[in-house]
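Propose amino acids for all 316 sites.
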């Protein structure tokens, strides 16, 4: 991990350490009416090994608002490509962390649909894969960076197939031309591929969408979440997710983004439905959350959720 990566990680986590020390003991009593917004979002996504949870959370909020599945991969690439603090070199496969607010800020020209630029479930022949593990976005980014470093005379059919599984609207000639341009950095090549791929079908909402903070007061964070759920509006949750990790170190802050898409009454507690981005497998979660998990959506008691909150955002 290089110094630039460490800097980015620190920038994305520094708020977590300061805000997690806040006293969350005060709560506001309320009615706990049932809300469930997950039906319109389809199956839970899987970010795989990419530390792009912030982009997946943002994509879910946008998909709900626009009523069309938005590409989390493009939101993440926009963030890393356009963020001024980022170095302008060959680094993209090494970076991790970010913010949902940043994902919105650096997507100023509309949004790319998931069907045009998938974030998972890449379709390539088995002959082009080095293992039985499913192909991930970072595998494709690393391949592009490797092509840039080695600069072959031409690309193989497998290289074209793998790259085109991410940039689905580009043909083999377009991919060859952009990747073998010696004048560009690998970051510029990825940016060009992304822009060309999404240009024709880019989604531009009639009304400009804005992301706003729901944390006017830390201790009233749940109240702010409830206000959005009451209007059928999902919320992006930045939180310490260590309680969802098996064998987590209690002294570490597991900074993570998910989306809150539901609420229900359970015994004497109000529970909230966290829509995670770790796929649909519930066995990955420790007890009792493995039994409170429904295909990657996890019901969490209010007191557990409140203690973990770092920040919340929503789109208007």
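Proposal:
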């Amino acid at each position: 991990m290089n110094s630039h990566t460490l800097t980015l990680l620190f920038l994305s986590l520094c708020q977590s350490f300061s805000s997690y020390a806040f006293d969350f003991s005060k709560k506001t009593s309320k009615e706990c009416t049932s809300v469930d917004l997950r039906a319109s979002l389809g199956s839970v996504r899987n970010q795989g090994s990419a530390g792009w949870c912030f982009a997946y959370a943002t994509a879910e909020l946008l998909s709900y608002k626009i009523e069309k599945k938005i590409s989390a991969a493009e939101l993440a690439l926009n963030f890393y490509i356009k963020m001024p603090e980022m170095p302008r070199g060959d680094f993209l496969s090494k970076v991790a962390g970010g913010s949902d607010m940043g994902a919105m800020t650096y997507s100023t020209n509309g949004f790319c649909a998931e069907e045009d630029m998938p974030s998972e479930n890449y379709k390539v022949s088995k002959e082009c894969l080095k293992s039985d593990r499913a192909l991930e976005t970072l595998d494709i980014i690393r391949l592009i960076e490797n092509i840039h470093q080695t600069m072959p005379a031409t690309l193989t059919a497998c290289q074209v197939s793998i790259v085109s599984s991410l940039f689905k609207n580009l043909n083999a000639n377009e991919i060859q031309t952009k990747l073998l341009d010696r004048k560009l950095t690998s970051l510029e090549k990825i940016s060009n591929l992304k822009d060309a791929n999404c240009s024709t079908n880019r989604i531009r909402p009639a009304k400009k969408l804005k992301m706003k903070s729901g944390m006017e007061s830390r201790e009233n964070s749940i109240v702010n979440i409830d206000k959005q759920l009451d209007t059928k509006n999902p919320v992006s949750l930045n939180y310490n997710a260590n309680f969802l990790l098996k064998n987590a170190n209690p002294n570490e802050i597991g900074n993570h983004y998910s989306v809150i898409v539901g609420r229900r009454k359970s015994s004497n507690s109000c529970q909230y439905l966290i829509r995670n981005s770790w796929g649909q497998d519930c066995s990955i979660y420790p007890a009792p959350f493995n039994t409170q998990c429904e295909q990657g959506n996890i019901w969490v008691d209010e007191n557990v959720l409140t203690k973990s909150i770092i920040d919340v955002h929503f789109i208007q």
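The chain is about 35% helix and 15% strand. Residues 15 and 310 are 8 Å apart (CA to CA).
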